[in-house]
Amino acid sequence: MDLMPHGYTNHTTRSGSVVTKAYQGPDAILRCDREARVLGAIAGRLPVPAVLARTEATLTMSFMPGVHGQELIDEGLSRCVLRACGHMLRRIHAIAPALAHIPAASQHSVVFVHGDYGPNNLLLDRDARAVTAVVDWEWAHAGDPVEDLAWCEWIVRMHHPRHAAALAELFDAYGWEPAWSARQQAMLTQCRSMLSLCERWEPGGPGSRQWRHRLATTQSWTG
After folding, report:
1. Between vectors from CA 89 to CA 111 and to CA 162, what angle results, nearest 5°?
2. What's the CA gap between 39 and 54, in Å, rounded?
3. Tens-digit pLDDT profile for residues 136-189
4. pTM summary value
5. How many CA atoms lie within 13 A of 37 on its CB side?
6. What secondary structure letter does DSSP report for 104?
7. Which residues share a beta bridge with 209?
């Protein structure tokens, strides 16, 4: 088995055409269950892996072809990648949240939110014109569309700051650019959520320190 690249929270390996994702950390069983239910519900509607088998905290899925979105950004295709992100996000948000019986974040929840959306969880063709797979649905929920838009922007600002100007393609393709104040607030909420997860997993550990730094960096941005 080969360890899959770009994995962070969980342990994901590949053997031929099969990928095995072992969930780790707090709420591993719940996150596994949620991703399994979501993948089953949206199969045929979006390009996602097929669930082949599962245990309490492990999913076995089909391997999806494509090039990782962040690799394509680093190769200079940020505008194409972010335009593809915007078009795909419109398709995701058009799915009724009740379809997958996913939890609502609040009484104002309105769309099907991926929860960790961005080029970090997209595979595309070599020219970055088409999305071949959307992966990692363990954080999916019913929520506000700004959550996914803002997190996609956060991934670029945090990991690919030289390509931040290309974010205009994301909003143009999606058809809406929320106010900066709303986007930054959504980013901060997500950062605090990740910090909380790390604190529950290993209080004061390297993950917590990393997310404290990222939270402070995100707070310093001015749009």
Report:
1. 130
2. 12
3. 999 999 999 999 999 999 999 999 999 999 999 999 999 999 999 999 999 999
4. 0.94
5. 18
6. B
7. none
Whole-angstrom Cα distance, residue 198 to residue 192? Answer: 10
How far separated are the first and last CA of the chain, in Å rounded?
43
Separation between Cα atoms, residue 14 and residue 193, nearest integer Å: 29
Strand order in the sheet with 18-22: 2-3, 11-15, 18-22, 58-62, 51-55
Question: What is the reported pLDDT for 6?
Answer: 65
Helical residues (DSSP H) of 15-166, grouped into ranges: 28-42, 69-74, 78-93, 145-159
Tokens of 174: 């999606």
- Tell me the C-alpha to C-alpha distance, in Å, between residue 15 and each of 2, 19, 61, 72, 73: 6, 6, 11, 24, 27
What are the angstrom distances between the C-alpha of 26 and each of 31, 196, 204, 222? Answer: 9, 10, 15, 33
Scan for tokens 């080969």, then name that residue: 2
User: Which pair of structure tokens corresponds to residue 106?
Assistant: 């609040």
Cα–Cα distances (Å) from 144 to 31, 113, 114, in that order, read 20, 7, 11
